[in-house]
Amino acid sequence: MNSNPHIAIAGATGAVGQEFLRVLHQRNFPMGKLKLLASARSAGKPVEFNGTTYRVEQLTEDSFKDVDLALFSLDSSISKTFAPIAAGAGALVVDNSSAFRQTKDIPLVVPEVNPEAVQGLAIGQGGIVANPNCSTIIMLVPVTPLHRAAGVRRIVVSTYQAASGAGAKAMAELEQQTREVLDDKPPTCNVFAQQYAFNLFSHDSDIGPDGYNTEEVKMVRETHKIWDDTAVRITATCIRVPVMRAHAESINLEFDQPLNRHQAEEILRDAPGVCIVNDWQNNRFPTPLDATGKDDVLVGRIRDDASQASGNGTRPKNGGGGIDLFVCGDQLRKGAALNAVQIAELLL
Amino acid sequence: MNSNPHIAIAGATGAVGQEFLRVLHQRNFPMGKLKLLASARSAGKPVEFNGTTYRVEQLTEDSFKDVDLALFSLDSSISKTFAPIAAGAGALVVDNSSAFRQTKDIPLVVPEVNPEAVQGLAIGQGGIVANPNCSTIIMLVPVTPLHRAAGVRRIVVSTYQAASGAGAKAMAELEQQTREVLDDKPPTCNVFAQQYAFNLFSHDSDIGPDGYNTEEVKMVRETHKIWDDTAVRITATCIRVPVMRAHAESINLEFDQPLNRHQAEEILRDAPGVCIVNDWQNNRFPTPLDATGKDDVLVGRIRDDASQASGNGTRPKNGGGGIDLFVCGDQLRKGAALNAVQIAELLL
Questions:
Q1: Under an 8 A CB cutoff, do A160 and B239 touch?
Q2: What is the pLDDT of residue B50?
Q3: Residue A311: what pLDDT?
Q4: What does the pLDDT read at residue B318?
Q5: Count of Cβ atoms closer than 10 Å to residue A41 Cβ
Q6: Which of A178, A192, A201, A243 to mutate to test the interface with B (most CBs of B within 10 A)?
Q7: With an 8 Å Cβ cutoff, is B172 touching chain A?
Q8: In sequence order, what E strands does chain A have?
Q9: Is A238 marked active-site?
Q10: Does position A314 have pLDDT exceeding 60, yes or no?
């Protein structure tokens, strides 16, 4: 490895690519040379970073010579081709796509949850680490400490997902459509097949024969891999809402052991990456807008699940009762760029 | 009763009041004289209906002489005063507020669910019927037929609620704020305490000591009353999203008896007030925009809840497995005005 790691950002012109730059800068990540990579279409574009203008270079097989750390935010199919090339050239790749998340021997990491999974890897030595799906990360940061305390048996989660999860073009489309609808013009639908402005819809990923879409399946399978535990039962409903860049999630938890809301709040107060916003008096709880630009996942509406108490208010015989939570996290930061940079920090 | 019922609409200038007029007209509801009532502030305002211009009159104790049917959409505290006055004057009141929903001997009715509850009442004879909360109605129209088939044991519901639930002013505020945010101006917050445009937040109703807000408690208590069954366990998380006038709900159901998604879809296909939108191939499911202006509750994402299947895909020993649904309903129509007019139709 170079004394300060040489860094390549692949997909540098996208929403997550731009966030990689901001996060590296804000966290004073040690940086040697910086290389910005993207498709031929974006090659030559100027990108300002830290007082220097960089020219975006076309991503090719030769892009990764002398690169120690490569942060990837590319389509899954392109990652599949180029991550092994970068790793073969000696770079540690943190890949934000779904290409390698379920690949055996490639760690899938949320630093607050399973940092030990990167053992044996190093910046400047070829390797791949997968960055989980944004909705999975934002759920697991608060849910994992509760799982450790009381054993999560079942999760029912419904998401409220922002435009940024579908990239910068989706964010621009939401803005453009909103202007059009306010001007009584028909909304332009390029990224999404239906109107997004003042509307919401089931996540636009492929749907399997069981009726779950890919986003929902990711939340289940990635949780199982990150926790190294397939016993927890999860059902997810993933919905896109007309919000720019932070996801919200309504999470219902069933536990093996008794855990009440006061204990849950105490655990969450000390949990890394969590900020409690649970002001009942003033009705202030997590919102996507408050989560925007923040590193922490905001957690609120922490309450004992009344549907898991028995009639007389005691816990049911067969378990430990449950907790409801409402959480918000910045999709581009903790849901993507920040988590990837935190993975790299584990290896510094 | 007059040969065609004389009708008063109390709260005629509000979003629901206006919808009452549209629904009465569209359904050819037999109408004698029509009286539009509102607060002193709105008195004298002209309202066009069916080619005639009506003048809004101030709501007073004398407003209900010779009125057979009074449709109320007022603040709960005002309903509490005037509904008994109207009933005392001989009008059948259908009240859209929460004032009487939990009052013993006042029926709380969703016509598709418990039409028998209005027995003994008649238009032109003094009486009060309570119209349930919008989120409750939209949930119960599709969930009740499944309950009858397999016995709903537990419901975990997360809502995506539109501006209209907070009235016409909230809808105007969402539009104004959206324009302001797009123009880089600070958003005007009058109805809500925080930015609504491109944001979402926990429902702005009062929060009880158990952490549930009033909207969530309504969904539980009203379901218990409408089903006449307090055994079903319910936990709700109510969230407002920047959508104009249709609510969405992500509903997870646990059953006493086995019921799979094919059986559920068959039941819902024949269910009154339900329209199935469940096109997996084209990823088209219910949206608030598609539900807008529609009488039916749109139901989709009908799937077997994977978290209730045991490891080998069979149902758990202790029950009948579960179903996930995603539903949308027009808050102003089925969630309010339409349901109230349908109650009146039961009594024609």
A1: yes
A2: 85
A3: 46
A4: 45
A5: 10
A6: A201
A7: no
A8: 7-10, 34-38, 46-49, 52-55, 57-58, 69-72, 92-95, 127-130, 152-160, 201-202, 233-237, 239-240, 246-255, 274-276, 297-304, 322-330
A9: no
A10: no
- Burial class for A198, CB neighbours closer than 10 Å (0-12, 13-18, 19+): buried
Q: How many domains does chain B have?
A: 2
Look up the CATH number of the domain holding residue A44. Answer: 3.40.50.720
Average pLDDT, chain A: 95
- pLDDT at residue B4 above 90? yes
Nearest-CB residue to B306 (from A198, A212, A318): A212
Range of the domain at B229: 136-331
* pLDDT of amino acid B320: 59
Whether residue B233 lies within 8 A of chain A, CB to CB, comes out as yes
Using the 3D structure, point to which of B132, B161, B186 is the last residue of a domain: B132
> Does residue B118 sit in the same domain as residue B160?
no
**Contacts with B250 from chain A: Cβ below 8 Å:** 158, 237, 239, 250
This complex has an ipTM of 0.96
**Residue A304 sits at the chain B interface (C-beta within 8 Å):** yes
**B322 contacts in chain A (CB < 8 Å):** 235
Q: Is B305 a residue whose pLDDT tops 70?
A: yes
- Is B337 inside a domain boundary? no
Position B336 in a domain = no
Residues A178 and A234 in one domain: yes
Q: B123-133 in b/e burial notation, b at 16+ Cβ within 10 A?
A: bbebbbbbbbb
**B315 and B177 together in one domain:** yes
Residues A38 and A55 in one domain: yes
